[in-house]
Amino acid sequence: METPSEENQDQRQDKRGCFECCIKCLGGVPYASLVATILCFSGVALFCGCGHVALTGTVTILETHFSKVTSDHAMLTDVIQLMQYVIYGIASFFFLYGIILLAEGFYTTSAVKELHSEFKTTICGRCISGMFVFLTYILGVAWLGVFGFSAVPVFLFYNMWSTCAAMRSPMFNLTTNIESICVDVRQYGIIPWNATPGKACGSTLGDICNTSEFYLSYHLYIVACAGAGATVIALLIYMMATTYNFAVLKFKSREDCCTKF
Fold it and tell me: Which end of the chain has fewer CB atoms within 10 angstroms, the N or the C?
C-alpha cells in the first residue's frame, strides 16, 4: 500500500502535469491571428450592416428632395442595389476567409511550439501558406481603397450638416440671406445635371438636415467608415502573421535547422 506521502507526491505530479498541459495549450494559440479575426469580423460587420442601411437612406433622401423624376436617378438606384448585393458577398467571403486564416495560424503555431512531437512541413503546406500571404496583401491594398471610398459619403454628408449648422448660427442670420445658401448634389456627379431640383437651399436644406433619414445615414456612414478602417488594421495584422508563419514553415523545412526555439 502507498503511504500518504507518496499519494500526495502523485497528486502534486498530476496537478503539475495539468498545469504544464494548459501552458502548452495556451502557447499554441495564435493570439495575433485571433485578435485579427475578431477585429476583422467586427469591422466587416459594421461596414456591411451600416453601409447597407445607409445606402437605403441615401436613396430615400435623393428621391424625396433632390431628384423627383425617377429616370434621373434610375442608374444611381441600380448601382446602389448592386453595391448592396456586393456587401452580402463581402460579408460571406470575409467570414470564411477569417476562419481559414485563424485555422492556418493554429496550424503554424503548433509547428513552432512543436506541440505534436516532431512536426514535418510539406511543399504543399508551404505553398498554401505563401498563397495566404499573397492574397492577404492583395486584400489589404483593396481594403485601403474601400476605406478611402467609404470616406466620400461621410465628406458629402458632413458638408451638408456643417452648412445646416452654420445657418442656425445667429451671427450667420444677421449677415447672410439664408435662402442664398444651397447644396447642389449634382456637382458631385451623384445625379445628372438635368435632374430637378438637384439642389436644396435655405430652409429646405435645414429641413433635410432635420430628417431622420439624413441623421441616421450620416452616422451610419461614419460607423461604416470606422468598420472599414478596423478591417484594414485587421488585414495588416494578418499580413504580419501570415508572413511570419510562412517564414517559420520555410525555415523548419530545412534539414539543418534547429528544432528547438
Answer: N
Residue that the C-alpha cell 504543399 belongs to: 124
How far, in Å, CA of 140 to CA of 142, rounded? 5
Mean pLDDT on 103-128: 60
CA-based end-to-end distance of the chain: 43
Confirm if 241 and 105 have CB atoms less than 8 A apart: yes
Taking CA atoms, 34 is separated from 28, 47, 104, in Å, by: 12, 20, 11
Q: Are 126 and 51 a contacting pair, CB within 8 Å?
A: no
What does pTM read for this prediction? 0.78
- Separation between Cα atoms, residue 49 and residue 84, nearest integer Å: 10
Chain-centre distance of CA 129, in angstroms?
22
Distance CA 70, CA 119 (A): 64
- In 3-state terms the chain splits into helix, strand, coil percentages (rounded to 5) of 80, 5, 15
pLDDT exceeds cutoff 50 at 24: yes
Q: Which stretches of 71-195 are assigned E, i.e. beta strand?
A: 182-184
- Strand 199-201 versus strand 182-184 pairing type: antiparallel
| Cα 89 versus chain centre, distance | 14
Q: Which of 121, 143, 111 is nearest to 235 (CA)?
A: 143
Q: What percent of the chain has pLDDT over 70?
A: 73
d(CA 255, CA 221): 53
CA distances (Å), origin 52, targets 14, 95, 129, 170? 55, 17, 33, 37
